[in-house]
Specification:
single chain, 401 residues, alpha/beta, five-stranded mixed sheet, 15 strands, 20% strand, PDI, repeat, Thioredoxin_CS, signal, PDI_thioredoxin-like_dom
Length: 401
């Protein structure tokens, strides 16, 4: 009997010991993957209050695992510094699927820089600590950005028919004749898979259409000029102007057929003057056909304009590319809420009414701010699709409406 009691006590002690062991294990410093991870709620508050550099990742992703130590090292450096203007964080896309979808994450890791009131900037450079830090500093303060060194300006030499271009010789090289150009990044998987086929295409070229490539990680100004948004981007350029973006199959036969077709077509790019006149004509026609329901506010009308009901205000600059892309959606939003008397969709041109924008603490374009009965309610930093904007403005709490 005594032996049984002793045995029971022993088992109980073992259970207690294992329990304490489990607790101690759970308190161990988390592994690299779980450090600085934000959930959706934490993320929304973080990017609203301060600049954040975010890594969207998946635990099973090999590239993410390799980046984790570097990312954590930078987070340790910046997040624990009270004077730091930026923090680093991570979002696990296998957990926060809706959040990752909202910000257009389709591959891992995706790195995006968020500043309060501004559209996120996607990072596409090298993933070493030095380059990542340089990007953060330049994004926070563009005046610190170093002008890239212009490469040799001499004419490029073809290697087996393939021209490797740079900022120094690109414009002159494509100024006359027909050129098929691959804009790529060395780390891009699709680019790597296309590389041998592109080389074969160059070898088979008769020279009437040159086959070219340019590295967008080192020659960013050229890629920005041609509005390259992803890799690889294949553009057919004639006499210095983009004719069209290639979107077909990337096997050798398809690429050769495309080059032959473009060469035979003699297709020309429209002259800039003509394009401008057509756009102006379309703009006038649009204005005549359908008056805008977006309320334009300024120095004399701002306070009155936001004084009653809900007013969703877009602070913009005419030269801002993001603003231009948002403009038609903003018009559609105004049309869609036109039947709701308590909601107004408005805009302020910050190049005209600078004082209004200064008082609203606008630091980037476009900045979207919601006002209720004259008081600021919220900075909008989420998706800018029509459905998301409409849901946001119409599903406000009853005390605001």
């Amino acid at each position: 009997m005594a032996a049984m009691v002793q045995s029971g006590v022993f088992r109980r002690l073992v259970q207690i010991a294992l329990c304490f062991l489990f607790i101690s294990i759970s308190l161990v410093k988390p592994d690299d993957e779980q450090k600085y991870v934000l959930d959706a709620e934490m993320f929304a508050k973080a990017v609203k209050d301060k600049a954040h550099f975010i890594m969207f990742f998946a635990p099973w992703c090999g590239h993410c695992k390799r980046l984790q130590p570097t990312w954590n090292e930078l987070a340790e450096k910046y997040n624990n510094n009270e004077d730091s203007e930026v923090n680093l964080g991570k979002v696990d896309c296998t957990v926060e699927t809706a959040l990752c979808s909202e910000y257009g994450v389709t591959g891992y890791p995706t790195l995006k820089f968020f500043r309060p009131g501004e559209e996120a900037v996607k990072y596409q450079g090298k993933r070493d600590a030095e380059t990542l830090e340089k990007f953060m500093k330049e994004t926070l303060d563009p005046s610190t950005k170093e002008e890239p060194e212009v490469a040799a300006t001499g004419p490029p030499e073809a290697k087996d028919g393939l021209y490797e271009l740079n900022a120094g010789n690109f414009d002159k090289h494509v100024a006359k004749g027909s050129h098929f150009v691959k804009f790529y990044a060395p780390w891009c998987g699709h680019c790597k898979r296309l590389a041998p086929t592109w080389e074969e295409l160059a070898k088979d070229s008769d020279g009437k259409v040159t086959i070219n490539k340019i590295d967008c990680t080192s020659e960013k100004p050229v890629c920005d000029k041609f509005e390259v948004r992803g890799y690889p981007t294949l553009l057919f350029i004639k006499d210095g102007q983009k004719i069209e973006k290639y979107g077909g199959a990337r096997d050798l036969d398809a690429l050769k057929s495309y080059v032959e077709k473009m060469q035979a077509s003699g297709k020309e790019a429209p002259k800039p003057e003509k394009v401008k006149k057509v756009e102006e004509k379309q703009e006038v026609k649009k204005d005549e056909d359908k008056p805008s329901k977006v309320v334009t506010l300024g120095e004399d009308s701002f306070e009155t304009g936001i004084g009653t009901g809900l007013t969703f205000v877009k602070f913009f600059a005419p030269w801002c590319g993001h603003c231009k892309r948002l403009a038609p959606t903003w018009e559609e939003l105004a049309e869609k809420v036109a039947s709701k008397p308590n909601i107004k969709i408005a805009k302020v041109d910050c190049t005209v009414d600078k004082d209004v924008c200064k008082k609203a603490e606008v630091r980037g374009y476009p900045t979207l701010i919601l006002y209720s009965n004259g008081k600021k309610v919220d900075d909008y930093n989420k998706a800018r699709e029509l459905d998301a904007l409409y849901k946001y403005i119409t599903e406000r709490p009853h005390d605001e409406l």
